[in-house]
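name: query_chain
kind: protein
chains: 1
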Amino acid sequence: MEKQKVVSEGAGAVSVAAVLYHKLPLAGKKVVCLISGGNIDVNILSHVISRGLMKTGRKAEFVIELEDKPGQLEQAVHIFSSRGANITSVVHSSSRDESQINSRYVTIRVETRDAGHIAEIREEFGRQGFHVVSEYHI
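structure:
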């Protein structure tokens, strides 16, 4: 879909999947795969796109523990922006049972270049003394 700009329903892309995953004895043969059908639910299509972005490291979600003091969120956001990540969502929440009494959590979703870019951001959080509780980029 991303490379060829073709949208297909699942059954309409079976021939391509069979070739990509070496399910047919095609060595030395010239092969044409037909792609057909566009009967795909928009919610499923959205999920497919989102999942593809996460698998390629172009979309990530960080949960970061912050001290409950002014400027902490600004510093966290600056790490993302200074590294060229595009923030798409910020959710600030109260502390968890296992956390320090003055801790808060922020979940930040970002658009990134690739898995290396995500690793660079994670390392910068560590250098600046932040605790990344979890990070998702399947």
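note: The chain has two domains: 10-40, 57-136.
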